[in-house]
Amino acid sequence: MGTYIFKRLISIIPVFLLATFLTTGMIHLSPVDPAEAYLAAAHIQPTDEILEQKRHEFGLDQPFLIQYVNSIMKICQLDFGISYVSNKPVLDEVTLRLPATFQLALGSIVIAVLVSIPLGFLAGVKKNSVIDHFSRILSFLGASIPSFWLGYLFIFFFSVKLDLFPVEGIGTWQHLVLPSVTLALPLIAIYTRLLRASVLENLQQPYVLFARTRGINEKTIMAKHVLRIAISPMITGLGMNLGKLLTGTIIVEAVFSWPGFGRYFIEAIFNRDIPVIQCYVLIAASLFILSNLLVDLIQMYIDPRISRKEGQQQ
């Protein structure tokens, strides 16, 4: 287990180097001059002298490989540069907004798990029942309704008409409900169908028949055997969506004016705030890797067969 975790952590290094290379390359090939973008954000009239000074200050007058190595050295020191707009360190700006995004992502994951596990499991066990048909309708709606449209519907009905939840902002649990549900509904659609299909598949496996012939209680079979194995694809999907939620809540944050990392990234794109964009790409890559590592460890705990396979491969 320790060797496996170490190898997975080591695998972050080439991904980090590739992400740094791509972001540096995009800046190098982009038609937008970072020096001009900085002066435009600072409302300074660009002149040839000022542009040359800023290019030298940002190291843009150096060869690409030197810029790449310098970027790696700075990032290893957690130095992502200075924001063109706020003129503050990018890391300080990001750490100020990441907790709000983590809060929103965690809320949506909790709602999705609490709804999809019992709904998907019962839909699989009671095939073609009322609850199965209900899960199909809910999954269809969750997969087909765009998040921004769903968010505006929630605002209209629950905030404007019923006055139950705030329209925007952050602060209390009421502020968290609508954006979390908006993010959770598409996840519920995916996880419910994944779990249902996995339950139906596992009910046909020999170990279920053997457990029944041994006289084991049906509830025990379902809870300790079928659900334990059937939930594996859902956990895999959860790991893939966790990184997406932490970096891809852009639309929902914009709809509900949520002061998170995704909304900050959109503002950086409009303002051509290149240090912020570069920081976002690197953090996104790291979060995807770490979330998938976490899910792999959970999978190994739930299904010991995975642990044995890893040991044989090593």
Keywords:
MetI-like, flat, single chain, mainly alpha, hydrolase activity, 314 residues, 16 helices, 2 domains, MetI-like fold, Opp2B
What can you see in these coordinates?
By secondary structure, this protein is an all-alpha fold. It has two domains: 14-76, no CATH class; 98-313, MetI-like fold (Orthogonal Bundle), CATH 1.10.3720.10. It has helices at 2-10, 12-29, 34-41, 48-58, 64-76, 90-125, 130-144, 147-161, 173-203, 206-213, 218-230, 232-247, 250-255, 261-271, 274-302, 304-313. α2 (12-29) runs antiparallel to α15 (274-302), α7 (130-144) crosses α9 and α9 (173-203) packs across α11. The protein is flat and about 85 Å long. The model has no long low-confidence stretch (mean pLDDT 81).
Gyration radius, rounded: 24 Å
Low-confidence segments: none
**Any idea how many domains?**
2
Secondary-structure class: mainly alpha
Mean pLDDT: 81
